[in-house]
Design a protein that fits this description.
Blueprint: H1 5-12, H2 14-36, E1 45-48, E2 53-56, E3 62-65, E4 71-72, E5 78-79
Antiparallel strand pairs: 1-2, 2-3, 4-5
Length: 89
C-alpha cells in the first residue's frame, strides 16, 4: 500500500506535528494580544485653524492632525473622511 510523503510524515511524527501546530497557534495568540495592548487613548487639548490642527499631548509632545482622515466618534460611528464637528473650523 503506497502512501504519500506528507501522509507518511504525519503518521510517523504526529506528536511532533501536533506540537508544532500548537506552538504556532500559541505564538500567533501571544503576538495578537501584545499588538492589541499597545493601543492607548488620552484626552488632549488642540488648536484648530483653517489650514491645520495641532495638539499637545500630556507628555509634552506636539503633534499635527491630518485635515481629512477616517475617524470613529465617541458613539462608535465610523466616518470615512472629513473633520470632526468638534474641531470647529
Amino acid at each position: 500500500m503506497a502512501t504519500t510523503a506528507l501522509g507518511e510524515v504525519l503518521v510517523r511524527y504526529r506528536w511532533a506535528v501536533l506540537g508544532l501546530v500548537l506552538l504556532l497557534v500559541a505564538v500567533a495568540f501571544v503576538g495578537f494580544r501584545a499588538g492589541r495592548s499597545r493601543v492607548a487613548t488620552e484626552e488632549v487639548r488642540c488648536l484648530a485653524l483653517q489650514a491645520q490642527i495641532g495638539c499637545t499631548l500630556n507628555d509634552g509632545w506636539d503633534v499635527s492632525v491630518p485635515l481629512d482622515v477616517s475617524w470613529t466618534d465617541s458613539n462608535g460611528a465610523f466616518h470615512e473622511s472629513g473633520r470632526p464637528d468638534w474641531v470647529g473650523c
